[in-house]
Design a protein that fits this description.
393 residues, Growth Hormone, Chain: A, 0% strand
Protein backbone atom coordinates (compact mmCIF):
# COMPACT_ATOMS: atom_id res chain seq x y z
CA UNK A 1 0.00 0.00 0.00
CA UNK A 2 1.48 3.37 -0.99
CA UNK A 3 1.17 6.56 1.03
CA UNK A 4 -1.27 7.98 -1.52
CA UNK A 5 -3.49 4.90 -1.26
CA UNK A 6 -3.90 5.07 2.49
CA UNK A 7 -7.25 6.23 3.81
CA UNK A 8 -8.10 8.28 6.85
CA UNK A 9 -9.07 5.11 8.71
CA UNK A 10 -5.59 3.54 8.38
CA UNK A 11 -4.15 3.42 11.94
CA UNK A 12 -0.96 5.24 10.90
CA UNK A 13 -3.01 7.89 9.12
CA UNK A 14 -5.36 8.26 12.08
CA UNK A 15 -2.39 8.98 14.35
CA UNK A 16 -1.06 11.45 11.79
CA UNK A 17 -4.40 13.27 11.65
CA UNK A 18 -4.55 13.45 15.44
CA UNK A 19 -1.08 14.99 15.55
CA UNK A 20 -1.80 17.44 12.73
CA UNK A 21 -5.11 18.29 14.38
CA UNK A 22 -3.39 19.10 17.68
CA UNK A 23 -0.98 21.43 15.84
CA UNK A 24 -3.70 22.97 13.63
CA UNK A 25 -5.80 23.58 16.74
CA UNK A 26 -3.32 26.28 17.76
CA UNK A 27 -4.71 28.70 15.16
CA UNK A 28 -8.40 28.67 16.22
CA UNK A 29 -7.41 28.54 19.88
CA UNK A 30 -5.20 31.62 19.48
CA UNK A 31 -8.14 33.43 17.86
CA UNK A 32 -11.05 32.23 19.97
CA UNK A 33 -9.67 31.90 23.51
CA UNK A 34 -9.37 35.64 24.08
CA UNK A 35 -12.57 36.67 22.25
CA UNK A 36 -14.70 36.68 25.46
CA UNK A 37 -12.01 38.86 27.05
CA UNK A 38 -12.12 41.67 24.46
CA UNK A 39 -14.34 44.01 26.53
CA UNK A 40 -12.22 43.33 29.63
CA UNK A 41 -9.01 43.98 27.69
CA UNK A 42 -10.40 47.30 26.45
CA UNK A 43 -11.21 48.34 30.03
CA UNK A 44 -7.87 47.23 31.46
CA UNK A 45 -5.80 48.91 28.74
CA UNK A 46 -7.94 52.07 28.74
CA UNK A 47 -8.81 51.62 25.06
CA UNK A 48 -12.06 51.86 23.11
CA UNK A 49 -13.78 48.82 21.59
CA UNK A 50 -12.55 49.74 18.09
CA UNK A 51 -8.89 49.80 19.17
CA UNK A 52 -9.12 46.37 20.77
CA UNK A 53 -11.14 44.95 17.87
CA UNK A 54 -8.22 45.88 15.61
CA UNK A 55 -6.13 43.18 17.28
CA UNK A 56 -8.23 40.65 15.35
CA UNK A 57 -7.71 42.01 11.81
CA UNK A 58 -4.02 42.57 12.71
CA UNK A 59 -3.83 38.88 13.51
CA UNK A 60 -5.65 37.92 10.31
CA UNK A 61 -3.43 40.07 8.12
CA UNK A 62 -0.30 38.73 9.82
CA UNK A 63 -1.59 35.22 9.31
CA UNK A 64 -2.23 35.92 5.62
CA UNK A 65 1.39 37.07 5.11
CA UNK A 66 2.73 34.27 7.26
CA UNK A 67 0.95 31.51 5.37
CA UNK A 68 2.39 32.70 2.06
CA UNK A 69 5.87 32.70 3.55
CA UNK A 70 5.57 29.30 5.19
CA UNK A 71 3.96 27.74 2.12
CA UNK A 72 6.97 28.67 0.00
CA UNK A 73 9.41 27.53 2.67
CA UNK A 74 7.57 24.22 3.04
CA UNK A 75 7.80 23.54 -0.70
CA UNK A 76 11.50 24.42 -0.83
CA UNK A 77 12.89 23.09 2.47
CA UNK A 78 10.31 20.46 3.36
CA UNK A 79 7.34 20.53 5.72
CA UNK A 80 9.12 19.93 9.01
CA UNK A 81 11.77 22.69 9.51
CA UNK A 82 9.50 25.71 8.81
CA UNK A 83 6.79 24.31 11.08
CA UNK A 84 9.22 24.05 14.02
CA UNK A 85 10.47 27.61 13.49
CA UNK A 86 6.94 29.01 13.30
CA UNK A 87 5.86 27.34 16.53
CA UNK A 88 8.89 28.75 18.33
CA UNK A 89 8.11 32.29 17.08
CA UNK A 90 4.48 31.96 18.21
CA UNK A 91 5.56 30.97 21.72
CA UNK A 92 7.83 34.03 22.00
CA UNK A 93 5.10 36.37 20.72
CA UNK A 94 2.58 34.91 23.20
CA UNK A 95 4.89 35.97 26.03
CA UNK A 96 4.92 39.48 24.53
CA UNK A 97 1.10 39.56 24.50
CA UNK A 98 0.97 38.55 28.17
CA UNK A 99 3.36 41.34 29.18
CA UNK A 100 2.12 44.27 27.04
CA UNK A 101 0.45 47.37 28.54
CA UNK A 102 -1.26 49.10 25.61
CA UNK A 103 -3.69 48.29 22.83
CA UNK A 104 -1.00 49.20 20.27
CA UNK A 105 1.45 46.84 21.94
CA UNK A 106 -1.10 44.04 22.00
CA UNK A 107 -1.82 44.62 18.31
CA UNK A 108 1.91 44.36 17.52
CA UNK A 109 2.43 41.14 19.47
CA UNK A 110 -0.75 39.62 18.04
CA UNK A 111 0.55 40.32 14.55
CA UNK A 112 3.84 38.64 15.48
CA UNK A 113 1.89 35.70 16.89
CA UNK A 114 0.16 35.41 13.54
CA UNK A 115 3.48 35.42 11.69
CA UNK A 116 4.50 32.39 13.73
CA UNK A 117 1.27 30.43 13.66
CA UNK A 118 1.08 30.53 9.85
CA UNK A 119 3.17 27.36 9.72
CA UNK A 120 0.67 25.57 11.97
CA UNK A 121 -2.10 26.63 9.59
CA UNK A 122 -0.67 25.88 6.16
CA UNK A 123 1.79 23.03 6.66
CA UNK A 124 -0.61 20.46 8.16
CA UNK A 125 -2.90 21.02 5.15
CA UNK A 126 0.02 20.50 2.77
CA UNK A 127 0.89 17.26 4.59
CA UNK A 128 -2.68 16.05 4.11
CA UNK A 129 -2.42 16.85 0.39
CA UNK A 130 0.89 14.93 0.30
CA UNK A 131 -0.78 11.83 1.71
CA UNK A 132 -4.22 11.61 0.04
CA UNK A 133 -6.01 11.90 -3.32
CA UNK A 134 -8.75 14.50 -3.82
CA UNK A 135 -11.70 12.56 -2.35
CA UNK A 136 -9.73 11.29 0.62
CA UNK A 137 -8.22 14.75 1.07
CA UNK A 138 -11.75 16.11 1.49
CA UNK A 139 -12.55 13.32 3.92
CA UNK A 140 -9.29 13.74 5.82
CA UNK A 141 -9.84 17.49 6.03
CA UNK A 142 -13.33 16.88 7.41
CA UNK A 143 -11.90 14.57 10.07
CA UNK A 144 -9.14 17.07 10.77
CA UNK A 145 -11.88 19.67 11.09
CA UNK A 146 -13.49 17.56 13.83
CA UNK A 147 -10.31 18.05 15.85
CA UNK A 148 -9.73 21.70 15.00
CA UNK A 149 -13.45 22.30 15.54
CA UNK A 150 -12.78 21.75 19.24
CA UNK A 151 -11.01 25.11 19.21
CA UNK A 152 -14.12 27.28 18.76
CA UNK A 153 -15.97 25.02 21.22
CA UNK A 154 -13.43 24.73 24.01
CA UNK A 155 -11.31 27.88 23.64
CA UNK A 156 -14.04 30.44 24.50
CA UNK A 157 -15.21 28.18 27.34
CA UNK A 158 -11.69 27.93 28.72
CA UNK A 159 -11.21 31.66 28.20
CA UNK A 160 -14.46 32.43 30.01
CA UNK A 161 -13.55 30.19 32.96
CA UNK A 162 -10.03 31.60 33.20
CA UNK A 163 -11.44 35.13 33.27
CA UNK A 164 -13.31 34.18 36.45
CA UNK A 165 -10.18 32.98 38.27
CA UNK A 166 -7.48 35.09 36.56
CA UNK A 167 -7.08 38.17 34.34
CA UNK A 168 -6.85 38.20 30.55
CA UNK A 169 -3.05 38.06 30.56
CA UNK A 170 -3.14 34.50 31.86
CA UNK A 171 -4.85 33.45 28.62
CA UNK A 172 -1.67 34.23 26.72
CA UNK A 173 0.46 32.27 29.18
CA UNK A 174 -1.79 29.30 28.43
CA UNK A 175 -1.19 29.85 24.70
CA UNK A 176 2.56 29.93 25.38
CA UNK A 177 2.42 26.57 27.12
CA UNK A 178 0.26 25.01 24.41
CA UNK A 179 2.51 26.21 21.58
CA UNK A 180 5.57 24.80 23.34
CA UNK A 181 3.74 21.47 23.65
CA UNK A 182 3.01 21.52 19.91
CA UNK A 183 6.66 22.32 19.21
CA UNK A 184 7.78 19.32 21.26
CA UNK A 185 5.20 17.04 19.58
CA UNK A 186 6.27 18.07 16.09
CA UNK A 187 9.98 17.82 16.88
CA UNK A 188 9.78 14.26 18.18
CA UNK A 189 7.05 12.67 16.03
CA UNK A 190 6.57 14.47 12.69
CA UNK A 191 8.21 12.90 9.64
CA UNK A 192 8.94 14.68 6.38
CA UNK A 193 6.18 14.17 3.76
CA UNK A 194 7.14 16.41 0.85
CA UNK A 195 7.29 14.42 -2.43
CA UNK A 196 10.87 13.28 -3.14
CA UNK A 197 11.27 15.06 -6.48
CA UNK A 198 13.48 18.12 -6.73
CA UNK A 199 12.29 21.12 -4.78
CA UNK A 200 10.15 23.39 -6.96
CA UNK A 201 11.21 26.94 -7.68
CA UNK A 202 9.14 29.01 -5.29
CA UNK A 203 8.55 32.73 -5.17
CA UNK A 204 6.58 35.43 -7.00
CA UNK A 205 6.57 33.59 -10.34
CA UNK A 206 4.91 30.55 -8.79
CA UNK A 207 2.47 32.74 -6.87
CA UNK A 208 1.53 34.56 -10.06
CA UNK A 209 1.17 31.26 -11.91
CA UNK A 210 -1.31 29.99 -9.33
CA UNK A 211 -3.17 33.29 -9.07
CA UNK A 212 -3.79 33.24 -12.82
CA UNK A 213 -4.71 29.55 -12.93
CA UNK A 214 -8.46 29.13 -13.36
CA UNK A 215 -8.30 25.69 -11.73
CA UNK A 216 -7.08 27.36 -8.54
CA UNK A 217 -9.26 30.46 -8.60
CA UNK A 218 -12.60 28.82 -9.40
CA UNK A 219 -12.73 27.23 -5.95
CA UNK A 220 -10.30 29.22 -3.83
CA UNK A 221 -11.91 32.64 -4.32
CA UNK A 222 -15.51 31.67 -3.43
CA UNK A 223 -14.41 29.35 -0.62
CA UNK A 224 -12.29 32.05 0.97
CA UNK A 225 -14.89 34.78 0.64
CA UNK A 226 -17.30 32.61 2.57
CA UNK A 227 -14.69 31.45 5.08
CA UNK A 228 -13.64 35.07 5.70
CA UNK A 229 -17.20 35.91 6.74
CA UNK A 230 -16.74 33.89 9.92
CA UNK A 231 -14.07 36.35 11.06
CA UNK A 232 -16.47 39.23 10.65
CA UNK A 233 -18.69 37.24 13.00
CA UNK A 234 -15.79 36.73 15.45
CA UNK A 235 -14.87 40.43 15.41
CA UNK A 236 -18.41 41.69 15.92
CA UNK A 237 -20.12 39.02 18.02
CA UNK A 238 -18.56 39.81 21.44
CA UNK A 239 -19.80 43.40 21.32
CA UNK A 240 -23.17 42.51 19.79
CA UNK A 241 -23.96 39.76 22.30
CA UNK A 242 -22.12 40.99 25.41
CA UNK A 243 -22.62 44.76 25.21
CA UNK A 244 -25.80 45.06 23.13
CA UNK A 245 -27.71 41.92 24.20
CA UNK A 246 -26.18 41.81 27.71
CA UNK A 247 -24.79 38.27 27.79
CA UNK A 248 -22.02 37.62 30.31
CA UNK A 249 -18.63 36.52 28.94
CA UNK A 250 -19.40 33.00 30.14
CA UNK A 251 -22.82 32.97 28.45
CA UNK A 252 -21.24 34.26 25.26
CA UNK A 253 -18.63 31.51 25.46
CA UNK A 254 -21.46 28.96 25.70
CA UNK A 255 -23.16 30.46 22.64
CA UNK A 256 -19.87 30.42 20.76
CA UNK A 257 -19.35 26.78 21.74
CA UNK A 258 -22.86 25.72 20.70
CA UNK A 259 -22.34 27.28 17.28
CA UNK A 260 -19.03 25.45 16.96
CA UNK A 261 -20.80 22.18 17.82
CA UNK A 262 -22.91 22.73 14.71
CA UNK A 263 -19.72 23.18 12.70
CA UNK A 264 -18.31 19.99 14.22
CA UNK A 265 -21.45 17.99 13.40
CA UNK A 266 -21.52 19.29 9.82
CA UNK A 267 -17.87 18.30 9.37
CA UNK A 268 -18.65 14.75 10.49
CA UNK A 269 -21.63 14.55 8.12
CA UNK A 270 -19.46 15.86 5.30
CA UNK A 271 -16.83 13.17 5.95
CA UNK A 272 -19.59 10.57 5.62
CA UNK A 273 -21.17 12.01 2.47
CA UNK A 274 -18.17 13.16 0.45
CA UNK A 275 -17.05 9.71 -0.67
CA UNK A 276 -20.56 9.11 -2.06
CA UNK A 277 -21.43 12.43 -3.66
CA UNK A 278 -17.99 13.97 -4.25
CA UNK A 279 -16.93 17.37 -2.86
CA UNK A 280 -18.32 19.54 -5.68
CA UNK A 281 -22.04 19.05 -5.01
CA UNK A 282 -21.69 19.50 -1.25
CA UNK A 283 -19.56 22.62 -1.73
CA UNK A 284 -22.07 24.24 -4.10
CA UNK A 285 -25.15 23.57 -1.99
CA UNK A 286 -23.50 24.66 1.27
CA UNK A 287 -22.36 27.91 -0.35
CA UNK A 288 -25.87 28.86 -1.39
CA UNK A 289 -27.20 27.95 2.06
CA UNK A 290 -24.56 30.08 3.79
CA UNK A 291 -25.28 33.11 1.61
CA UNK A 292 -29.03 32.78 2.23
CA UNK A 293 -28.61 32.61 6.01
CA UNK A 294 -26.35 35.67 6.11
CA UNK A 295 -28.79 37.61 3.96
CA UNK A 296 -31.59 36.68 6.38
CA UNK A 297 -29.53 37.88 9.39
CA UNK A 298 -28.75 41.18 7.67
CA UNK A 299 -32.44 41.80 6.92
CA UNK A 300 -33.26 41.07 10.57
CA UNK A 301 -30.56 43.51 11.72
CA UNK A 302 -31.80 46.24 9.37
CA UNK A 303 -35.33 45.82 10.68
CA UNK A 304 -34.18 46.76 14.17
CA UNK A 305 -36.12 43.85 15.64
CA UNK A 306 -33.17 41.47 15.94
CA UNK A 307 -33.37 40.18 19.50
CA UNK A 308 -31.23 37.35 20.82
CA UNK A 309 -33.09 34.43 19.27
CA UNK A 310 -33.67 36.19 15.95
CA UNK A 311 -29.90 36.38 15.51
CA UNK A 312 -28.77 33.27 17.41
CA UNK A 313 -30.84 30.71 15.47
CA UNK A 314 -29.76 31.62 11.90
CA UNK A 315 -26.23 32.20 13.21
CA UNK A 316 -26.08 28.58 14.43
CA UNK A 317 -27.03 27.21 11.02
CA UNK A 318 -24.66 29.64 9.30
CA UNK A 319 -21.67 28.41 11.32
CA UNK A 320 -22.71 24.79 10.75
CA UNK A 321 -22.82 25.29 6.98
CA UNK A 322 -19.13 26.20 7.04
CA UNK A 323 -18.39 22.56 7.88
CA UNK A 324 -19.21 21.72 4.26
CA UNK A 325 -17.39 24.71 2.81
CA UNK A 326 -13.86 24.48 4.16
CA UNK A 327 -12.92 20.82 3.62
CA UNK A 328 -14.48 20.55 0.17
CA UNK A 329 -13.26 23.94 -1.01
CA UNK A 330 -9.74 23.11 0.10
CA UNK A 331 -9.74 19.67 -1.56
CA UNK A 332 -11.09 21.03 -4.85
CA UNK A 333 -8.60 23.92 -4.83
CA UNK A 334 -5.50 21.80 -4.26
CA UNK A 335 -6.48 18.76 -6.34
CA UNK A 336 -4.48 19.78 -9.47
CA UNK A 337 -1.31 20.66 -7.52
CA UNK A 338 1.17 18.14 -6.13
CA UNK A 339 4.75 19.29 -5.54
CA UNK A 340 3.54 22.87 -5.04
CA UNK A 341 0.84 21.92 -2.52
CA UNK A 342 2.52 24.02 0.19
CA UNK A 343 2.43 27.18 -1.90
CA UNK A 344 -1.09 26.48 -3.17
CA UNK A 345 -2.27 25.85 0.40
CA UNK A 346 -0.54 29.05 1.53
CA UNK A 347 -2.13 31.17 -1.20
CA UNK A 348 -5.50 29.66 -0.35
CA UNK A 349 -5.04 30.64 3.29
CA UNK A 350 -3.50 34.01 2.48
CA UNK A 351 -6.52 34.96 0.40
CA UNK A 352 -8.80 33.89 3.24
CA UNK A 353 -7.08 35.92 5.95
CA UNK A 354 -6.46 38.94 3.73
CA UNK A 355 -10.18 39.16 3.06
CA UNK A 356 -10.85 38.36 6.73
CA UNK A 357 -8.56 41.19 7.81
CA UNK A 358 -10.34 43.67 5.55
CA UNK A 359 -13.69 42.41 6.81
CA UNK A 360 -12.56 42.70 10.43
CA UNK A 361 -11.42 46.31 9.90
CA UNK A 362 -14.77 47.08 8.24
CA UNK A 363 -16.72 45.62 11.18
CA UNK A 364 -14.70 47.59 13.76
CA UNK A 365 -14.92 50.81 11.70
CA UNK A 366 -18.64 50.56 10.97
CA UNK A 367 -19.72 49.26 14.39
CA UNK A 368 -22.55 51.49 15.61
CA UNK A 369 -23.84 49.62 18.65
CA UNK A 370 -26.09 47.39 16.53
CA UNK A 371 -25.69 44.08 14.66
CA UNK A 372 -25.82 45.86 11.28
CA UNK A 373 -22.06 46.08 10.66
CA UNK A 374 -21.37 42.46 11.58
CA UNK A 375 -24.27 40.96 9.62
CA UNK A 376 -23.80 43.35 6.68
CA UNK A 377 -20.15 42.37 6.16
CA UNK A 378 -21.01 38.67 6.57
CA UNK A 379 -23.75 39.03 3.97
CA UNK A 380 -21.52 40.90 1.51
CA UNK A 381 -18.77 38.28 1.72
CA UNK A 382 -21.00 35.22 1.35
CA UNK A 383 -23.13 36.63 -1.47
CA UNK A 384 -19.93 37.67 -3.28
CA UNK A 385 -18.59 34.13 -2.87
CA UNK A 386 -21.68 32.55 -4.39
CA UNK A 387 -21.63 35.08 -7.22
CA UNK A 388 -17.97 34.46 -8.08
CA UNK A 389 -18.49 30.71 -8.01
CA UNK A 390 -21.39 30.96 -10.43
CA UNK A 391 -19.46 33.31 -12.75
CA UNK A 392 -16.41 31.01 -12.98
CA UNK A 393 -18.25 27.80 -13.85
Amino acid sequence: MTVRQMTAETPVMSKLLLMLGAISLLTPVSIDMYVPALPAIATDLGAGPGAVQLTLPAFFIGLAISQLLFGSLADHFGRRPPLLCGLALFACASVGCALCHSAAGLTFWRALQALGVGGASVIPRAIVRDRFDVVHTAKAMSLLGLITGLGPILAPQVGGVLLVVANWRFLFWVLTAYSLSCLSLAFWTLEESRPPQAAPRVGPKLWLSLLTDRRFLRYSVPANLIQASVFAYIAGAPFVFIELLHLSPQQFACLFGINALGLLAAGRINAHLVTRTGPELLFRRAMLCTAGLCLAMFVIALSGRGGFWALAIPLFFYVASLGFNFANGFALTLAPFGSTAGTASALHGTMQFTIAGIGGVAVSTLYDGSPRAMTGIMCALTVAGATVYRAMQ
